[in-house]
Write a structure and sequence with these properties.
Elements: E1 2-7, H1 19-22, H2 27-40, E2 44-49, H3 53-63, E3 69-73, H4 82-88, E4 95-99, E5 121-124, H5 129-143
Parallel strand pairs: 1-2, 1-3, 3-4, 4-5
This protein binds 1,3,4-trihydroxy-5-OXO-cyclohexanecarboxylic acid.
The site of 1,3,4-trihydroxy-5-OXO-cyclohexanecarboxylic acid has 10 residues, from loops.
Length: 144
């Protein structure tokens, strides 16, 4: 199973940005951990991050036909980017939406997700562990 893990805007600042919400580890730590979890589960994972919305859209286009599932954390774009929603719409495999922080327990504007109805699973507020759970959810689907 080929999985693209796509982190969006400002997630390159992990470790330097509001550790109470996002933890103390860097994006590189996160990606290294995700690759290790993927190996244990025999999943073929590719991690990517960008601060450019159009590039994120290109990542989603590149996933069409090339990835079987997606793990997406679009950062703040989650709450307003209809372009990202449109780009996700044609993807036929499972889409797991992950947020490190508990977005529903924060500011009102973080409660809206443009992925609503598109994401097959949503994992929030579990920090880095949320990505592990996302891989477990996808591995379980593969095994049925
Ligand atoms: C985030 C939550 C978003 O509201 C925020 O803008 C982020 C990170 C999270 O992982 O908790 O950049 O997606």
């Amino acid at each position: 199973m080929r999985i693209d893990v796509l982190n969006g805007v400002n997630l390159d600042l992990l470790g330097r940005r509001e550790p109470a919400f996002y933890g103390g580890g860097s994006l590189q730590d996160l990606e290294t951990t995700i690759y290790a979890w993927a190996r244990e589960r025999k999943l073929q994972v590719r991690c990517r991050q960008t601060n450019h919305e159009g590039e994120y859209v290109e990542f989603l286009h590149a996933a069409l036909g090339n990835a079987d599932a997606l793990v997406v954390n679009p950062g703040a774009w989650t709450h307003y980017s209809w372009a990202i929603r449109d780009a996700l719409e044609p993807f036929e495999g499972p889409i797991v939406e992950v947020h490190l922080s508990d977005v529903d327990a924060r500011e009102e504007w973080r409660r809206q997700s443009v992925l609503e109805g598109l994401a097959t699973d949503r994992i929030t507020g579990e920090g880095v562990e949320g990505y592990r759970r996302a891989l477990d959810v996808l591995a379980a689907r593969r095994d049925v």
